[in-house]
Backbone:
């Protein structure tokens, strides 16, 4: 058994920058999935790929539909998936150093030989004249010969052992697992962001309904104050006070409607719906009972299933393998 030292040294020189880059990619994926920011420019989880253009029909959207669209179109999850594929490529690149290398080559050549220069002059040829048909040298015999040469070669090489390459392969495997957990953590982030945006829209729609009810009540009070003033029962100041209250509630209704439109645009931006598309929320009050668990049980489940925690553990393994 021999060790291919040439390939070993090449890997140490050419492959050394690969694994720091791999570690940087792992850390960037984790930072992206854990750093909330209200702007889509700094946090891709607040942006998405627009799946289809706007239509004239109103799109009915439930909470489950919104989450499904977010998992399909959200930019943060798309980046996490791309990062996982990149780490898989790093692992395959590290594994490739142990695979056999077969190189096939070939060449065609033409060679001319001067027989006289090689010692086969006319005198030597005459001594062998009896071997030719008729017992004499053929007419037009040339002392310049032409040889056509076809050559083929197959080279086989394989690295049998290398400590740095094995460490790099282990780091790449840990990095791939870390990227997988980062992707799963990103999925949870998308679900949380989309659900929060959906519930913000539900709350904003409730504020609009409340503002409309207050406006209707203010309109009724103003009508009563106006009728009482016309009948001479109350002073003009009471009608004026009712008018000002109605106008304030009308302004509150406009503000509530604008807030709802902004929240709807934010929701559309996170799930890949065109901002101009009209949508109607079909889950005004999503609710489900939570299972009763003790803090110890919840903590044990978190240590076992939290993707970000497992991501950090594999980052530590990859860092130790590289260094």
Residues:
């Amino acid at each position: 058994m021999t060790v291919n030292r040439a390939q070993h040294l090449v890997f140490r020189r050419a492959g050394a920058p690969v694994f720091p880059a791999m570690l940087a990619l792992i850390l960037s994926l984790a930072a992206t999935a854990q750093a909330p920011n209200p702007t889509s420019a700094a946090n891709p989880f607040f942006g998405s790929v627009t799946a289809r253009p706007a239509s004239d029909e109103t799109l009915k959207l439930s909470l489950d539909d919104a989450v499904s669209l977010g998992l399909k179109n959200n930019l943060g999850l798309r980046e996490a998936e791309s990062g996982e594929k990149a780490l898989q490529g790093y692992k395959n690149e590290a594994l490739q150093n142990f695979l056999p290398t077969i190189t096939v080559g070939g060449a065609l050549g033409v060679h001319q030989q001067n027989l006289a220069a090689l010692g086969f002059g006319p005198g030597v040829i005459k001594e062998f004249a009896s071997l030719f048909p008729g017992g004499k040298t053929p007419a037009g015999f040339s002392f310049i010969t032409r040889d056509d040469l076809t050559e083929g070669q197959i080279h086989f090489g394989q690295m049998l052992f290398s400590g740095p390459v094995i460490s790099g392969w282990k780091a790449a495997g840990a990095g791939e697992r870390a990227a997988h957990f980062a992707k799963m953590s990103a999925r949870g982030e998308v679900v949380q962001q989309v659900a929060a945006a959906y519930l913000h829209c539900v709350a904003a729609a409730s504020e609009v309904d409340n503002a409309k009810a207050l406006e209707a009540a203010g309109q009724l009070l103003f009508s009563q104050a106006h009728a009482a003033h016309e009948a001479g029962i109350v002073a003009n100041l009471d009608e004026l006070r009712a008018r000002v209250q109605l106008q304030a509630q009308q302004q509150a209704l406009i503000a509530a409607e604008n807030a709802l439109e902004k929240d709807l645009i934010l929701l559309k931006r996170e799930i890949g719906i065109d901002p101009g598309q009209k949508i109607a929320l079909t889950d005004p009050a999503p609710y489900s009972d939570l299972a009763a668990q003790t803090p110890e049980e919840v903590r044990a489940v978190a240590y076992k299933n939290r993707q970000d925690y497992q991501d950090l553990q594999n980052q530590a393994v990859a860092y130790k393998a590289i260094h």
The chain has two domains: 5-99+161-206+258-322, 107-157. Residues 163-230 form the longest helix (68 residues).
